[in-house]
Amino acid sequence: MRGIVWFRRDLRLHDQPALIAACEACSEVIPLFVFDEPLLQSRVFGSACVNFMLGCLHDLASSLADRGLTLQWRRGEPVEEVVRATREWKADAVYWNRDYEPRAIERDHTVTQRLAKAGVVVRTFKDHVVFESDEVRGATGEPFQRYSAYRARWWTQWHAIAPTVQPIPTTLTNKISAPLPLSRSQPTVTELGYDPVASWIEPGEENALKRLRWFTEGPIHSYAQGRNLPAVDGSAKLSPHFRFGTLSPRMAIHAALKVLAKGGRVSRPDVLTWVDELIWREFFQQVLASFPHVAEGAFRKVVVPPSRDPGPEHDSLFQTWCHGQTGYPIVDAGIRQLNQTGWMHNRVRMVVASFLIKDLRIDWQSGERYFMQHLIDADTAANNGNWQWCASTGTDAMRGYRIFNPALQSKKFDPDGAYIRRYVPELAHVSVRRIHEPYLMTVDEQELARCRIGVDYPFPIVDHQQARQEYLNLGKQEAMK
Ligand SMILES: Cc1cc2nc3c(=O)[nH]c(=O)nc-3n(C[C@H](O)[C@H](O)[C@H](O)COP(=O)(O)OP(=O)(O)OC[C@H]3O[C@@H](n4cnc5c(N)ncnc54)[C@H](O)[C@@H]3O)c2cc1C
């Protein structure tokens, strides 16, 4: 039997359910990747994300080549391309791992019907999460809307049926198919219509495993504190790997729990806090799968202050935020980190999101879109879930009237301003006392810091206290309507 393995968000060989099943059932396996042309043209993602994906594909192609297999690729509308490839290669079956985004579910439904009509077997697998949405449910079978309840049930499931990590199938090298027309070399980022950017998070399965080892041998032991400090390399920075499946979530969780099992000088709360984050990831995946309307709007109808009307003021404030020129150093550092590297520290993501929604009163979906277009780890479920959390419209939303104070967040989590200085070089010489609120500098202090407010670095675009009060007042008015 000849089977195609359609790689999508699972660009690895280890613990790869679709690949394992194909190796078990088929005498010939053809690995395939389809560049989704309509998606690439829609510019939902940005260059950082596309470069990282290409790096992962390059790595996957080379791991397959080491085993004598060629990663075939197609470019076009995925349903048409998969159906055509199956026909041309006379494949008997197509294997893939499931994806929970509404658009992907629809695509997979269509391709399944088309293949079934042609008499081709389709087999799909759980991979992107440890537990799919219907495996972690409330007492009456309803999907969870609260993270804490979901987490408790998730752990019960884990203790009952913790999935193991599967090795790379040893039979893979025997699955070489009869020669197919030669696959051209993978398209470059420019050919796909994106800009080349150096990926500072190294792509590919080997690098994901290396990073996981580094993290579980060191930073995981002080994660609860380290993860909040943007100037420190205190979190795993594995999110792009989870996004493109160069690391299996099962492997990551087992690796963390192995740290605990080893005993010795292990900080249990730190390790478990990290696993909690992986459960947050699964939680948002199940929210998207169970409540697909979140991709289009608020999870729940709640009374929140209205966002600013479209128009020149809205556009000008939004552009100022997008360029990291708000006059609030922690916000500007975060956005500039994103624009320069395709990544932003989680604590700072929350601060910049709160600032956009609550200080500037720009709708959260504008921020969500901007993040998708710039993040290397751009992922609909995590991005949407977190933006809705910040906007207080989501499942486990941030309390409606909690508004981050950028200067206080900055003092608490970047006390000496090291992170700010890295991304906002105009403030490099500002004293520790003033780095969080440079607009308070006297003329003498500005001279000493070689930074004139209003010339070298902007005045704040809004007064935080005033914006906060306005937001609260609008909220009260809205509640009385
Ligand atoms: C407004 C906003 C938008 C976000 N958009 C995305 C996004 O598009 N893609 C994305 O992967 N994450 C997103 N996050 C979540 C989080 O910021 C990143 O997952 C995290 O910063 C990745 O860094 P890390 O790998 O070092 O995480 P670690 O702290 O090491 O955590 C380990 C893993 O857990 C998962 N995780 C951690 N925090 C969260 C969270 N809050 N929600 C869901 N999963 C989490 C990630 O897969 C992460 O790699 C967003 C957060 C906010 C506040």
Write the layout of secondary structure elements.
Elements: E1 2-7, H1 17-25, E2 28-36, H2 37-41, H3 47-66, E3 72-76, H4 78-88, E4 93-97, H5 102-117, E5 121-125, H6 147-161, H7 205-217, H8 223-226, H9 239-244, H10 249-262, H11 268-290, H12 312-322, H13 329-341, H14 346-359, H15 364-374, H16 380-391, H17 406-413, H18 418-423, H19 443-449, H20 464-480
Parallel strand pairs: 1-2, 1-4, 2-3, 4-5
Helix pairs in contact: 4-5, 6-11, 7-10, 10-11, 11-16, 13-14, 14-16, 15-16
Unreliable spans are none
The chain-level structural class is alpha/beta
Major sheet, described briefly?
Answer: 5 strands, parallel
Write down the overall mean pLDDT: 95
Q: Strand order across the biggest sheet?
A: 3-2-1-4-5
Using the alpha-carbon principal axes, give the shape.
Answer: globular
Q: Rg, please?
A: 24 Å
CATH topology of the largest domain: DNA Cyclobutane Dipyrimidine Photolyase, subunit A, domain 3
- Number of DSSP helical runs: 20
- Total domains: 3
By CATH reckoning, the class of the largest domain would read: Mainly Alpha
CATH superfamily of the largest domain: DNA Cyclobutane Dipyrimidine Photolyase, subunit A, domain 3
Bound molecules: flavin-adenine dinucleotide
By DSSP, the count of extended strands is 5
Distance between the termini: 65 Å
Q: What proportion of the residues form beta strands (DSSP E)?
A: 5-15%
